[in-house]
Amino acid sequence: MTGSSSAAFSDTLINALKSILGPGGLLTQDTDTAPYLTDWRGMFHGKAFAVARPASTEACAKTVKLCAWHKIPVVPQGGNTSMVGGATPDDSGRALVIVMSRMNRVRDIDRIDNTMSIDAGVTLKAAQDAALDAGLMLPLSISSEGSADIGGILATNAGGNNTVRYGNARELALGLEAVLPDGRILNLMRRLRKDNTGYALRQLFIGSEGTLAIITGAILQLQPKPKSIETALCAVADARAALELFAAFRNAEPSAIQAFEFMSGLSMQLVNTLIPDAPLPLAEPSPAYVLVELASPRGGDTLRGLMEEVLGKALEDGLVSDAVLAESEAQRQAFWKLREEHSEAQKRAGTSVKNDVSVPLSAIPEFIDRATTACKKLIAGIRVAPFGHIGDGNIHFNLVQPEGADGAAFLACDHEIMDAVTAIVRDLGGSFSAEHGVGQLKTYMMPAWRGGAELDVMRHIKTAIDPEGIMNPGKMLPEVG
């Protein structure tokens, strides 16, 4: 027997899904499905015949199997925080959006292995809190951690603030559980640091943006909970000074650096102006800022002395013009709020074009200078607001519409702006997507950047695992022809 050649959304199909998903597991009313059909930035708006909310891996598998039978496209969605439209369906109305929010159990924390077994629908913040309650730390940290969930984070191989020390999501995942496009459950939930038995399949699904499977569970590596943390906000002249300061900390004690974040003066000004209770804690505004955090699992460590020593020398040398150290956890959180609210502040300032790029660390100053010049030549009055994870080479080179400009007209230039920026990134040996993924926003870039054998291999993998092409269609891989 074969499934139907088109999705006929009959009462029989809807009832079958309801039977699988249970009460509250299937949303069909427009008012209920609407929040799942638009991306966080408001750039992409799609349609779906329903939104499924499975409460278990088995329910998710049965749902996907039914979709495979009817050749219904499936769009996996986590916290719907994608910056590139990676979890938004197209406008055909044929897709079923599958949301993981009801799969929200922390299954187990092993204090000997320092691992956490967890459902995909657990938010990153809830996972962090569970680890802390066990006296451990989940070192992943991103701005949207209150809403982004573990499945989406792994599907996009999220990076974030602590990548400079602990790596991306990929480095933290030991095991994985996923539902394949035919509805089979792939169980790779092994808590092993060493397992040399064939292809590392979990790594194939991490970063695949939901185009190969739906991640339903994971085993994550945890770290000892820091007992000493020192955080400082520093005023610097530019990215060159920021990198020199990073080198000073790295030369003094590389293992102490937990985060090292760069913020441009304009981007910080937007936060101070548009975000409530986010004042600048320095005497004067600066052309750029660095947020540096040191951490150690040892109590009574000398991190304060290290922070003061490095910053003292930087102040003497003119590398830093001003700095303030957090004197309490509340002040530390206030510093981090200044960093985490950049995307929201830019959203409130108007339409923005976002470039999530990476280049070698030594090339960052040249990249920012050249890209700033190129964008200002393109559009008069454009507001250049870069910020990001300068310690690992990832800069969010964001462009905000000129004050008083028409947002739609500005957004219509997004490809021209992105292409101008990424041309410089490519010249410097970088990547057009460092951590946000490709989604549907940047698929057009893939042939030029990943064409030839590399893109062919990706397509072969997609065809082998998802021959009907039902899993998150239109994302990451460009259409052929």
UniProtKB/TrEMBL annotation:
Keywords: FAD, Flavoprotein. Its cofactor is FAD. One of its GO terms (biological process) is respiratory electron transport chain. It comes from the Bacteria. Residues 44-225 form the FAD-binding PCMH-type domain. InterPro entries: FAD-bd_oxidored_4_C, FAD-bd_PCMH, FAD-bd_PCMH-like_sf, FAD-bd_PCMH_sub1, FAD-bd_PCMH_sub2, FAD-linked_Oxase-like_C, FAD-oxidored/transferase_4, Oxid_FAD_bind_N. One of its GO terms (molecular function) is catalytic activity. Gene3D superfamilies: 3.30.465.10, 3.30.70.2190, 3.30.70.2740, Uridine Diphospho-n-acetylenolpyruvylglucosamine Reductase, domain 2, Vanillyl-alcohol Oxidase, Chain A, domain 4. PROSITE patterns: FAD_PCMH. PANTHER family: BLL6224 PROTEIN, D-2-HYDROXYGLUTARATE DEHYDROGENASE, MITOCHONDRIAL. Belongs to the FAD-binding oxidoreductase/transferase type 4 family. This is D-2-hydroxyacid dehydrogenase. The lineage of its organism: Bacteria, Pseudomonadati, Pseudomonadota, Alphaproteobacteria, Acetobacterales.
